[in-house]
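Q: Hi! First time asking for a complex rather than a single chain. Here are the components, and I think there are two in total. Is that enough to go on?
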Amino acid sequence: MRVHAGAILALLALFTLGTAVLAASLYHVQVDDVADARKRFRNQATRRISIPGLRGRILDRNGGVLADSRPSHDIAIRLECFQRSGGWSNTVAAADTEIDRLAAVLGLQRTVARERIARHLRDSSALPLTVWRDIDDATLARFSERAADFPGFIGTLRAERIYPHGTFAAHVLGYTGRGRPDTDMGDTVVHYYEELEVKGRSGVEGYYDSFLSGAPGEKIIRVDARGFRQDDGKVERESARGLDLRLTIDPAIQRTLEGVLAGVSGAGVVLDPRDGAVLALASTPVFNPDEWRQRYREYLDDPARPLFNRAVSGLYPPGSIFKPITAMAGILRAKVDDSFDWTPEDKFDCPGVFVLGDMRLHCWDRYGHGPLPLRTAISRSCNAYFCNLGQMLGTNSLFGTAQAFGLGARTGIGLNGEAAGAIYGTPWYAGHTCQTSIGQGMLQVTPLQMAVVCAAFANGGRIFTPYLHLREEAGQPEPVRRIGRPEDFAVVREGMRDVVETGTGRRIRTREGENRVKYNIKVPCAGKTGTAERGHGRKDTWIIAFAPFDEPTIAMAIVVENGESGGKTTAPLAHMVLASIFGEEEVSR
Amino acid sequence: MIRYLLRFNWALLACAVVLVALGVVFVGSAGAARSVAALQNAWRSHAVTAVAGIAIMFAMAAVDYRKVMGWVAAPCFAISLVLLVVVLLAGAKIYGGRRWLWFFQPSEVAKLAVILFMAQVFGRHGDRLCGFKGFLVALAILVPPSLLILAEPDLGTALVLVPTALAMLLAARIWTKGLVAMILAGLLAAGALLGTVKAAEAQVDPDARARIYSYLPLKPHQLARIRTFVNPDADPYGSGWNLRQAKISIGSGSLAGKGIGKGEAKFLGYLPPSVSMNDFIFAVLAEETGFAGSATVLLLFLGMFAAGTFTAIRCADDRGRLLVVGVLTLLFSHTYINVAMSIGLMPITGLPLPFISAGKTFLIVMFAALGMVQSVAVHGRAE
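A: Yes, that's all I need. Here is the structure of the assembled complex.
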C-alpha cells in the first residue's frame, strides 16, 4: 500500500498539535486577558452620564426664598429612533423632517438647525437632543396628546433658576449661567451629560456654587456599535440635592437700603458689628438676575455698569471718614510711645488753611476752626487738625493703623471679585502723609471695608470678617483682630456722636420733615461723613454710622458717586436706614 | 445491514451531531440580534439542513466507494468545473463576488470533487505517478478549479484546497522530497511577506510605506487583512474592526461565558451582524460559553480527527485512506483557519467553521464528506 498508517498517524499528530496551539491561545485570550477584553468592551459599549443634583435654594435670614429652581418642560428627540440605512445624513434628514412636522403641529419655531443635529449625532448620539426648551403648558398639553404620533420625541424636565424678587439683593445673589457639569469624580473616565448645568457665575451663586449644586449622580447606559442608546441605563449613583444657603441678609434692611440708593450710583453695606454678619449689601444701578440671560449684552454694554458690585469691588478714596483712623493711630501711638508727645486733649490751631512747604491745604471752613481738641476736630471734620496730627505720626504709624483696620486687604466676605483696595506706605511727595491723614491722596477703599472699619468703632476695636452664610450651629465668630482696648476708642466714639448731634453729620440723626418738624432716630447713634475729591470736580460722598451708641447692633457704610457732600447727600440715606430699624421720634421744640 | 451498523463510525457521527447542535444554538443566538425574520429563523434551516445532511451521509455510507469511485470521480470533477464556470457567468453577485448558483455554492461542492478525484487518481495509479510526474498531474487537477474559485473571488476556499491536496500527496508518497522543499519554500515566502509588511508598518513615512506595498502582488483588501494581522491597531475602526471586535468578544467570555444568548457584542452590533452568523460565529460561541465552550468545540473536532484516523488506518486500500485523509485535512484546515483568524493568529480569511457556521451548501458538503468517510468505514475494511 502506498498510504502508510504511520503517515496517517503523523497527520493526526499534526492536527492535535494545531488544536493544542488554538486551545492555548484561546486560554490566553479568554482567561489570562479577560480583564483587558472586558475593559475594552466596557469602554466602547457604555457611556457614563452625569446627572445633576437639584440646586439648593438661597434664603434670607428669615427663611424667605431669594433664589429657587422651577421645572422647565423641554422636548427632546432621540436620534436612535430615526436610524436610517446608508450614510449618517439619512438619519439627520429623517430627524430633521420629523422636527419640522412636530413644529408645525405645535406651532413652534425651530430652535435647532440641521447642523446641530449632525453635530449631536457625531458627538453624543447616545443622548437625547433638546429641540425646544421651556415650552408653555398649552404646548405641553398639545405635545402630550399627539405624542403617540411622534415616537422618538420625549418630554424632559430640567431645572431652571428663578429669582422670585427680581432685582432684590441682586449683587449679593449674583447670577447663574449654564456650563458643563463638574465631571471630575476622582477618576479619569469620560462623563457625558444630557444638559448643561446651572452654574453660579457671580455673587453667592458663584462663590457657593459647589455648596448649592450638590453632588452629581451617575448613570451608565449601554450603546451599540453606532453609538446609539440601547437601554435607559442603570443609575450607578443617585444625585444629591444641593444644600440650601441661608444668608445673613435681613430682607427689611436690604429693601430699605436698596430703596434709598435707587436712582444714584453708589453702594451700601450694613453689618452687625457684634459678629460681622452682613445684614444688607447693595450696589446701584442694579441688574435683574432673572433676566440676566436675555439681557446680559445690554448689561455689559451699559456705561453705568449694573453688573459691577460697587459694594465689594468699587474703589473710592475715603475722604474724611478716614479721620477716625488717623485719630486712633495717634491714640494707640501715644499709649506705647513715650516720646510721642500728644494727647487727645491737646489742641491744634486751625487758621482755615494748612501750609506745608508750598502746599496750602484748605480746611472746609475757610475762616478756620480756631484751636480745637480731637473730639471737636472729629465732629467738625477739621482738615488742619488731622494734617497736623498726621505730620506728627508719620506715614508708618498711619499706614500701620490703616492696615490693622483691614484697609488694603480683601475682607474675605465670600464673594468673587472682591477688591483689596490700596494704601501706599511710601510718601511720594511732600504732603502725602498730610493728604492721607484726611483720607485723600493715595488711598482706595471699598464700601465693605469701610463698613468693617465702622463696625470696629462700634464694637470697640474688633475686626470681623464680614460673612453672608448664616450658620447658627457655627456659633459666635471670633474677630480676626483686636485693635487696642475698647476704652481707647472712647474719645473718637464721643467725637463721632458729636458728628450726628452737632457736627457735619447731623442729618444722619435728624430729618427735617414738613413744616420744619424734625425727627430724630429713637436711639443714640454716631457716625462720620466724608466727601472725597476724585478730580475733575467729581466727589464721592460717604457716611459711616452705627447705632445704638452704647451697645451697637448696626454699623454701616454708604457711598454715593457724584454727590454734593457726605453731610448733605449721603447722611439722609443713612437716616432712612437707621429709621427703618430703630424708628424715629418727633423732636419737641 | 448488521455489518453496516457495526462498522459505521458512530464516534465520528456523534461528534458531528453535537457540533451541529451547537451550530443550531449559536446560529439562533446570532440571529436573535438581527431584525430580519429570515435571519432570526436561520437556526431552523440550519437544523433542517443538518437532518438532510445526515440522511445523505447515511445514504452515502451504504454505497461501496470501491465500486462507484472508478466511474463517479472523474464525472463529478468535470461537473464541478462546469458549475464553477457557470457560476462565474450566471451567478448572483453578492458582496462583490459571484459565488452563488441558485441555492448553492459550487466552490463548496468542488472541494469534495477534488478530494474524490485525487483519491481516485493517486489511490489507483499512485505507483506510476510517484515522482515529479505525479506532482504535475496533481497540479493539472488542482489548478483549474483553484483559478475558477479565485476568480469568484473566494481566496479562502482556494486556500484550503492547498493543504488538503498536499496532505493527500504526502500520504500517498508522491514526489515527497520536492513537496517538502516546496512547503518549506512556501513557509519562507509567507514569512518574507509578513516580514516585509511588518517592516513597512514600522515606517513612519506613509509614502515609503506605500512604495513598499506597491511591490507586493496583493489586492488592496488582501493587503489590508495582512496589515491588520501584523498590526491589529493600525486601523481599529476600519479594516481592523472585525478582528478587534472578535478578540474583545472572545476575550470577554472568560472561563464560563456570559450565558447562551446573552452575548453583548453581537447584540450591540460591535461584532458585525453580517459576519456573526458565518465566519465569526466562533466569537459568538466563545463570548457566550467562555473557554469551557470553545475548548469543548476544539475537543469535538479533535474527536472527529481521531475517529477519522481510526477509519483510515483500518481501511485496506489506498483510495479509501486517501479519501479519509483528504476529508480530515479539509475539516482541520477549515477549523484551524477559522478559529485562528478569530483570535488574530492568522490573517482574516473568509472561511466558515464546519457544522457550526450557518451555510446550507457547506453543511451538506461537510456531511457528504463524512458520508465518504463512513463509506470507507463500512466497506473499506479487509475481510
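A: Chain B touches chain A through 55 residues (CB under 8 Å). Let me know if you'd like any chain examined more closely.
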